[in-house]
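Researcher: Good morning. I'm working through a list of sequences from a screen, and I'd like to move beyond sequence-only analysis. For each chain I'm collecting a predicted structure so we can compare shapes side by side. This is the next one on the list. No need for commentary yet; just the structure.
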Amino acid sequence: MIKNIPYHLGIIIDGNRRWAREKGLPAFEGHRKGLAKVKELIKWSKERGVKILTLFVFSTENWKRAKREVNFLMKLAESAIADNLKELHKEGIKVRIIGQKERLPKFLQETIWKAEELTKNNKGMVLNFALSYGGRAEIAEAIKKIIEKKILPEKITEDVISQNLWTSDLDLIIRTGEEQRISNFLIWQAAYSELYFCKKYWPAFTETDLDQALADYAQRQRRFGK
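Model: Good morning. Structure tokens for this chain:
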């Protein structure tokens, strides 16, 4: 059994389209396969004792993609939440969506509201879906909240900023695919997080890959600048 499991695990889901392309399939099939992998990952993470799992599924930059693909992803996200909500609630998982919810289609906003309302008191793992999310946008929103609260400049500390963000500090970030960057993902919370890059595209990610990442994390010494 792996010890020293990260309290907050973040995963940058990357490679759905490239996985499909290499197999001669439409990009949509890559996204469907990626969703099935997300369901498996949630189960694996909860079994291993992860307390907060944040999945980067759609960035603010992803709005620039073809309208047809964006519409497909919005419908896929809605069905994914709606179809699995009862099971997530039964497992005691608290579902949260972090990001610019106001940019999402109304039908998706309604499903998100139902999911968050139903699971808000659950005490099991917190499951964050970063949807229409960008780290810089999150920090900008935090600044707006601080201004609205009329907090004096001399009272603004790192803790105050953290308290006005959408989620807490990360312990480990896993990114799949070939890229080695965090791509505007929880950039404040990632200040001292450990990074792990898996070359496999997301649909090909396995339970063994997760365990390898967790085992690698367990071997690291986190000094936090000391």
